[in-house]
Design brief:
about 120 residues; about 0% strand
């Protein structure tokens, strides 16, 4: 239980710290947010919990393939907010929907290419 609480605390502190830094500097906030901190933590926690390098390698591979469609969100959001001047919440939701469509397309492409996640 203590390890579970530690996981929650470390992860929460990182997310809050990035949000706070972003208020002062979008460059530094973006740099910190672009680091695969959540992936680092997930891989680290998975290894600590299982000591199974095979599971860590499989998760790492899945993260690699699924980072690509997640970029759709970051490509879609700025034009929706700035060029089309849509409402923030609508833009955020639409960019998220487009990202999930990207995930679906990537899973189909990977399946056809014989990549199993």
């Amino acid at each position: 239980m203590t390890q579970y609480i530690l996981k929650i605390l470390v992860t929460t502190v990182l997310v809050v710290a990035i949000a706070e830094v972003s208020k002062r500097s979008s460059l530094v906030g973006g740099l910190l947010a672009s680091l695969p901190l959540v992936s680092f933590l997930a891989l680290f926690w998975l290894y600590l919990d299982t000591k199974d390098t095979g599971k860590v390698a499989a998760l790492s591979s899945s993260i690699f393939w699924l980072v690509l469609p997640s970029l759709v969100f970051f490509l879609a959001l700025p034009p929706l907010l700035l060029k089309l001047k849509l409402n923030f919440y609508f833009s955020f939701g639409l960019a998220t929907a487009l990202m999930f469509a990207g995930y679906g397309a990537m899973l189909v492409i990977l399946k056809k290419a014989g990549v199993n996640l």
